[in-house]
Structures are given as structure tokens and as C-alpha cells.
Write a structure and sequence with these properties.
The complex is a heterotrimer of chains A (231), B (233) and C (258).
Chain A lengths: L1 E8 L3 E8 L4 E5 L6 H8 L7 E6 L14 E4 L11 H11 L5 H9 L15 H13 L5 E5 L7 H16 L3 E6 L2 H5 L4 E6 L2 E7 H5 L5 H8 L7
Parallel strand pairs in A: 3-7, 3-8, 5-6, 6-7
Antiparallel strand pairs in A: 1-2, 1-4, 8-9
Helix pairs in contact in A: 2-3, 3-4
Chain B lengths: L4 H11 L6 H16 L2 H19 L7 H17 L7 H8 L3 H26 L6 H18 L2 H22 L26 H7 L3 H20 L3
Chain C lengths: L1 H20 L2 H30 L9 H4 L1 H4 L1 H15 L11 H8 L3 H35 L8 H25 L2 H11 L5 H5 L10 H6 L14 H25 L3
Helix pairs in contact in C: 1-7, 2-5, 2-7, 5-7, 5-8, 5-9, 7-8, 8-9, 8-12
Classes of the chains: A alpha/beta (231), B mainly alpha (233), C mainly alpha (258).
Chain lengths: 231, 233, 258
């Protein structure tokens, strides 16, 4: 369960409120620069908000003593030092949250990086890097997943895999929040949608509710964020 | 003029190593100057180095203050080289724009030289040791070479600063036999402890540069060219 | 809750040790620190013998310890790397991506993170300092024999403490500057043969109380500065500097966006 409540950050976010519920995939949609990443970074304790709260399972992220067991997050890049191997990166993360070492091999296998686990993260392709980031997110087997543009850099097979993975995660009762600037990417997998534009939430609800009155979710998106994208 | 065009291209190619037209070399140097000049960290380094030199000079410290503030020149050289490998790997864009790596290394050195010579002259004069400008310039170029080889700002700064500020003075003092192949440091020339040139200003400039300083710069830049040539980026 | 917090701190320190020792640059610092001082004993051997014979040394017992003041460079590098590695770009062509993001996702309480990092660093440098000090003193004894008085254990312990404090000083400065080059420049300029703070004491005696200069009084007896500083005072002054800088760095680190 994720609860964002009246979040504000000067120049970036204005009174952003929404929820992401267990067992559902929530799509966080908006043009580039609308405030998606900013919101997620505040939620994860990386950046600070001026006002409002962002709670995961009822607490601020920083209040969890073993956060990796509560939230799995996938942000830009893998977060691995370029000189470190994928396995070494996951090992220190596991150690810091007192996770069993066996989890490292499990998540490497899950994302299909077992054969590359000994290679330096700096030499990874964008797709491999994303998979390493996902492996880190899954390390603590968390009930909540937060993913920023998860399919960026993935090949078609990877995108297909990611969609199935996220659907399964929700079916298991996990809360899944993913941001995207591509509508098509969300329409197949999201149950709920939150649309943000210039730091304000302009619509939220189930996919059907938000796209009501429009032909598709894509049409709804452009109607709601009209004229803000320079394309 | 039109009939002269092919000839000038040919003349250009004989002018530069590796058959790269002079126009290309000049454009590459100009691009490198622009890259250096638009880096805030370069300007901060220049300003701080000069300001600290002035302050220490005003404080009337014994000896040449350049022994310490040469660190700013070494950092300048390292920054000029390693900026390419910071955020977002600018080196890829650079190599797409200028795939000739030997030419690129030369252009980088010349661009840095253009920035360093006046700065070294001003700082050395501020320190009261104008004769040290040549040494400072070569130290900067050597640091740039080391930065291009090591590709990592912190590592290169650690290596270069340790070498020039600690290892070289120590070894020079302890092992006089090898002193001739080590840079002499900013205290140079026959003109006393402040490194003031003994003879005429301009000739002393050249005379004051010990061959080892120049050799180190050339070896470092040569190594950088080889690194860029033979290693993947 | 208290014991839970303790268990957690142990695993955080463990994770930070793993991170630090998994870096090549950290090993450069480790090996450099281990080798520099013993090598200097050999390099300085003839000059030391001459100095003792001509009675040039203020306190012959210092000769065993002097070389440790330069080997400390290795500890300094470790202090820089422990922070700068967090800010190094990850290498996948994503602007702004760095290890710090993963670190803060795993350990969002920043003060705990800083304590764990500082503890891991102190442990590594304490072992490094101890090994180097013992090696240096043994080699000095072997090279010079009875020419130099036998070293006192208290001074050896003070030398190890000096190494740890220098590493923490580098840690604090790098956290403040968010850039390892700044720290290396400042600290290496201060470790030159005729160090800058030493020259500054000719201008103002207060320069003798700069953190890295004052600390040397803990294990060296004949430092030519215009003020006399007792070893314990020196240790306290240096510790206060390090604690103060760490506090400022931690406060800023807590406030800044990652």
C-alpha cells in the first residue's frame, strides 16, 4: 500500500495525492518532466518534500529498518559501482538488510543474469543494467514494488517478460506502482491510473474511469495533458 | 581560388601528422578549447589557484609558494582530461566527432596549453618566480596525460599529486643519482631560492625549464595517445 | 528494540566493509599505505644514519616514527574512496545514476549510514595502521639497530590513532565537498616535505593547531613549531576537529537531496 498525501516540492510538485493498492498495478502516467520521478524519489526518501507525506505500508520509507523487505525500487540505472561485479553489488545490498546470501543467486536467476554475475557492472548493456536493478529490487521479496519507467532499454522479449512479471506480482497480492510516459505500455497491464501534469495530479481512478468519454487511454491522456508536451 | 582548393587540401595534409587536414586539426583544437572553457570546475580551479598563490605571497611565506600551489595546475590537467569520462561519458561524443585519436590527444594538449601558458605566467609572476611558468605548464600537461590514461578523476589526482608533491621531492633529496630524470619542481634556475631567473626574462623562461619536466609531459601524453589508440573507451 | 538496532548496525557495518573492500581503488590505498612507510625507512636509511651521526636530529626516537607521517596517505585514500565511490557514475549511460541511490534505498536512515561507513573505515584503517606501524618499527630496528632508541608502545598506539583520525578527516571533507579531488589536493599539499601548515606557523602560531598538523604531536616529539603541544592535547584537538567536521558533514548530508 502506497499513500501519497498532499506532497509538495517548490517548482516540481503541487499538492500531489494518490494511492496505490495491494493486488493492483497502478500506472503513474505523465509527460517528461511532469513530476513522476520526483514523486517516486520523495516516496523513497532520496529527495525531500516541502510539505505532505508519502507512506509505504503506513510508514515513511526511512522509518523502515529493513526497507528492502518492504519496498523494491527500480530507478534509473542499476546503482552498481561500475568497478563492481553484479554479484558483489547484490551481496552488499543483501548484507545491509540482513537478507540471506542465497537470495542473491535466486534473484540473479530470476532476472536471467546468472551467467553475467561475475562481470563488472560498468560493462553492462542498458538492458542488463536494468535487469540488475530489478534483481536488487526483488532481493528482499518485498510486498511493494516501485518502478520508474521499467521497460526503458528492454528489448521486445524483455518488455513482454516485464509485463507478465508485474501482472503476476499483483496477482500475488503485491502493490505495484510503475511510472511511464508511454500510454500503450500501461493500457494492457495497469488496473488503476494516475495522470500527472506539471506537478499536479489531473486524473486518477481505474483505467475505465479515467478513459471514460475518450476512445482510448491514450486519447484521455492527451486530452488531460493538452498542449504541455512540446511534441 | 577554386583551382587552388585541391592544392591547399594537399598542402594541409602534408602539414599535419597522419594525413589529417589542417582545417580538421584546427577545428578539433577549437572544439577542445570550447569544452575546457565551458567547464565551471576549470574556472574554479584557476581562480582558487591564483587566489591562494596571491594570499600565500602576501603572507610572506619563506620559499616559493608554488611548491604548494602547483597542486592547482596538476588538478587543472587532471580535470581537463577526466571530464570526458564523468557523467554520461562525453568521450563517446568526442570520439564520434573526432575519430583520429592521435590527433585528438594532440588537440587536447594544445588546447590545454593555450589555457595554461597565460595562466602559468600570471600565477608564477604573482608568486614572484616568473621563471617557474615553464615548469608549471609542463606539469599541467603531464597531469592531463595521466588523466587520459587513468580515466578516473580521483585516481588520477591521487597519482599525480602524490608523484609531484611527495615522491619526486623525496627521491630527489635521497637519491641524487636519479635526480636528473625527475622534474626539478617549481624552484628552478640559478636565480636563488625564489626561482627568479638570473638572466633576461624571455630566455630565462626557456632556460629555466629542466628537460625532465618536459620529458615527463611528453611521455604522459604519448602514453595517453597510445591508450586512446589501443584501448576501448 | 535496542538489541535490534545493534544487530542492524552490525550488518550495516558488514555491508560497508564488503563495499569498501570490493573496490580496486580501496586496495590501492590499502597496499600503498602498507608499503610506503617501510619503503621510506630503506630510502631514508643513509640520510638517517648521517643525521644521527652529526647530531642533527632533535629527538632520535622520532626517526622510527617519522616515515609513518607519509605512509598515512594510504589511509587518506581510503577515507576519500569510501565516499567518492558513492558518487561515481555507474557507467551505464544514464546521467546522474550512481551507487548512492542503491545505498540509500538499502539504508534510508542517513545518520546510521554515515556511522556504519565511518566504523567500517575506522576498522580497516586501524588494522592497516597497526600492521604498518609494527612493520615500520621492526624494519627501522633491523636497519639501524641500537642507533635509534627502542620505540615505546604508547607512541605506536598514538600513531595508529593518527592514521584512523586522518582517514576520518578525509571522509568528512569528501562528504562536505562531494568530490574526492578536493580532499586529495588539500591533504596531499599538507603532507609535502615542507608542509604548508608548517610554513603557515611562521606567519601565525595558530596554524600549528590545524587538524593534520596538530595530530602529529601525538607520536612525534620534535616538530619544529613555535608552540609546544603535549601528545594528549594534540589527540584531543585533532579528535575535536574531526568530530566537528563530521557533524557538519552529516548535517549537510541529511539535508541535501541524494
Amino acid at each position: 500500500m502506497i499513500a501519497i498525501d498532499h506532497l509538495s516540492r517548490p517548482g516540481r510538485l503541487h499538492d500531489v495525492s494518490f494511492e496505490a493498492r495491494p493486488g493492483r498495478v497502478t500506472g503513474f502516467l505523465g509527460p517528461n518532466g511532469a513530476g513522476k520521478t520526483s514523486t517516486l524519489r520523495v516516496l523513497l526518501g532520496l529527495d525531500r518534500a516541502r510539505g505532505g507525506t508519502a507512506l509505504v505500508s503506513g510508514r515513511r520509507y526511512a522509518e523502515w529498518s529493513r526497507p528492502l523487505t518492504v519496498v523494491g525500487a527500480l530507478l534509473d540505472g542499476s546503482g552498481a559501482h561500475r568497478a563492481r561485479s553484479a554479484r558483489a553489488h547484490l551481496r552488499w545490498m543483501a548484507t545491509s538488510n540482513r537478507l540471506p546470501r542465497s537470495r542473491v543467486a535466486e534473484v540473479l536467476d530470476l532476472v536471467g543474469l546468472t551467467d553475467e554475475a561475475g562481470k563488472r557492472a560498468g560493462g553492462f548493456s542498458l538492458g542488463m543494467s536494468r535487469r540488475l536493478g530489478l534483481a536488487a529490487a526483488l532481493l528482499g521479496d518485498p510486498p511493494v514494488l516501485v518502478l520508474d519507467e521499467p521497460v526503458n532499454g528492454l528489448d521486445p522479449a524483455g518488455i513482454r517478460w516485464m509485463r507478465a512479471f508485474l501482472r503476476d506480482a499483483a496477482a500475488e497480492g503485491r502493490t505495484v506502482l510503475l511510472s511511464s510516459h508511454l500510454m500503450g505500455e500501461l493500457s494492457g497491464i495497469a488496473d488503476d491510473v494516475v495522470i500527472i501534469d506539471r506537478g499536479r495530479v489531473v486524473a486518477s481512478g481505474t483505467v475505465d474511469e479515467v478513459s471514460a468519454g475518450h476512445l482510448t487511454l491514450e486519447d484521455a491522456f492527451f486530452a488531460l495533458t493538452a498542449g504541455t508536451s512540446k511534441w | 581560388m577554386a583551382e587552388n582548393a585541391p592544392r591547399s587540401v594537399k598542402a594541409g595534409s602534408t602539414w599535419s601528422a597522419g594525413l589529417v587536414p589542417v582545417g580538421t586539426v584546427v577545428a578539433t583544437i577549437r572544439a577542445e578549447v570550447a569544452k575546457l572553457g565551458t567547464l565551471p570546475s576549470v574556472w574554479i580551479t584557476l581562480t582558487l589557484t591564483w587566489a591562494v598563490t596571491l594570499l600565500l605571497r602576501l603572507a610572506e611565506l619563506p620559499g616559493s609558494v608554488l611548491v604548494h600551489t602547483q597542486a592547482g595546475f596538476l588538478v587543472l590537467g587532471v580535470l581537463a582530461a577526466t571530464q570526458e569520462h564523468d557523467r554520461g561519458r562525453q568521450i563517446h561524443a568526442t570520439l564520434l566527432a573526432m575519430p583520429r585519436r592521435a590527433t585528438l590527444t594532440m588537440a587536447k594538449a594544445l588546447a590545454l596549453l593555450a589555457l595554461t601558458v597565460p595562466f602559468a605566467a600570471v600565477t608564477a609572476a604573482t608568486a614572484g618566480a616568473p621563471g617557474a611558468a615553464g615548469y608549471l605548464t609542463f606539469a599541467t600537461l603531464a597531469a592531463c596525460g595521466a588523466g587520459l590514461i587513468l580515466r578516473h578523476g580521483v585516481v588520477a589526482a591521487g597519482v599525480v599529486l602524490t608523484a609531484y608533491l611527495i615522491v619526486v621531492p623525496l627521491v630527489r633529496a635521497r637519491l641524487p643519482d636519479v635526480a636528473a630524470v625527475l622534474p626539478a619542481g617549481p624552484v628552478t634556475g640559478a636565480g636563488g631560492e625564489n626561482g627568479q631567473p638570473a638572466g633576461g626574462e624571455v630566455t630565462a623562461w626557456i632556460a629555466d625549464v629542466d628537460p625532465a619536466s618536459a620529458a615527463w609531459a611528453l611521455v604522459a601524453l604519448g602514453g595517453a595517445a597510445m591508450t586512446l589508440r589501443y584501448l576501448d573507451t | 528494540m535496542v538489541s535490534g538496532g545493534r544487530v542492524q548496525m552490525v550488518s550495516l557495518v558488514h555491508a560497508e566493509l564488503r563495499k569498501l573492500l570490493g573496490l580496486r581503488t580501496a586496495w590501492v590505498g590499502l597496499v600503498l599505505g602498507l608499503l610506503a612507510a617501510p619503503v621510506l625507512v630503506g630510502l631514508n636509511a643513509s640520510a638517517t644514519r648521517r643525521a644521527v651521526a652529526e647530531g642533527l636530529t632533535g629527538d632520535a626516537s622520532d626517526l622510527a616514527f617519522q616515515n609513518l607521517g607519509i605512509g598515512v596517505l594510504g589511509a587518506m585514500i581510503l577515507g576519500v574512496v569510501v565516499v567518492s565511490s558513492e558518487f561515481t557514475p555507474t557507467g551505464d549511460d544514464v546521467p546522474g545514476a550512481r551507487q548512492l541511490t542503491a545505498t540509500l534505498l538499502a539504508t534510508p536512515r542517513r545518520e546510521r549510514l554515515l556511522i556504519a561507513k565511518g566504523t567500517a573505515l575506522s576498522l580497516v584503517v586501524a588494522v592497516q595502521g597497526l600492521l604498518t606501524t609494527v612493520a615500520t618499527l621492526v624494519i627501522t630496528r633491523w636497519v639501524h639497530g641500537s642507533l635509534i632508541p627502542a620505540p615505546q608502545p604508547g607512541r605506536a598506539a598514538a600513531a595508529v590513532l593518527y592514521w584512523v583520525l586522518i582517514a576520518l578527516l578525509a571522509y568528512a571533507i569528501t562528504l562536505l565537498a562531494r568530490n574526492g579531488i578536493v580532499t586529495l589536493t588539500v591533504l596531499i599539499v599538507n603532507s609535502t616535505v615542507v608542509s604548508l601548515p608548517y610554513l603557515l606557523t611562521k606567519v601565525t602560531p595558530w596554524a600549528a593547531y590545524l587538524p593534520d598538523v596538530v595530530g602529529a604531536h601525538m607520536f612525534l616529539r620534535s616538530i619544529e613549531v613555535p608552540v609546544e603541544i603535549a601528545p594528549v592535547t594534540a589527540g584531543l584537538v585533532m579528535s575535536a576537529w574531526v568530530a566537528g567536521l563530521l557533524a557538519v558533514a552529516a548535517a549537510l548530508f541529511n539535508r541535501r537531496d541524494a
